[in-house]
Write the structure tokens for this entry.
Amino acid sequence: MEEPILLGKDKFKIGEGETAKRELRVVKVDENVIQVQEEVHGIIALVGASSSVNIKKEELKNLIKVAKEEFGWTDICE
């Protein structure tokens, strides 16, 4: 698998005096499959049967740009 491409990163306050760091990355898994990875550090997370990724508007724009330019997905819209 290729090295992930960074789409965005930020910090946010989760409590009094406690900040979490978040990074969003994308990696091409197959010709028709990409994987979006969200890493959050600074909080304890519970593991469940489902997962989700929070994506900002600018990160989505970056994801579309990477999919087109880096992965050759020219048939997707903006």
Notes: The longest strand covers residues 18-30. The chain has one helix and three strands. The chain has one domain: 5-69. The CA atoms of residues 10 and 22 lie 5 Å apart.
